[in-house]
Amino acid sequence: xxxxxxxxxxxxxxxxxxxxxxxxxxxxxxxxxxxxxxxxxxxxxxxxxxxxxxxxxxxxxxxxxxxxxxxxxxxxxxxxxx
Length: 82
What we know:
Blueprint: H1 3-11, H2 16-40, H3 44-63, H4 70-81
Helix pairs in contact: 1-2, 2-3, 3-4
């Protein structure tokens, strides 16, 4: 999705919540990927910061009343593995 497309999606009040949630899920997947690579490089400080980022995404999703609890449990499982 290009920047222009994401801007258009957020300006649509009916579809924006679902679109935003999808974006948060995509960001979470990217952060998990980065965290795993940082762990392989023994970059402990980076892993710590990425764990904080995942916690904030989970909090934001809860705040937005995300009905799909699968992302929250996914993030918790990933944090526990570290």
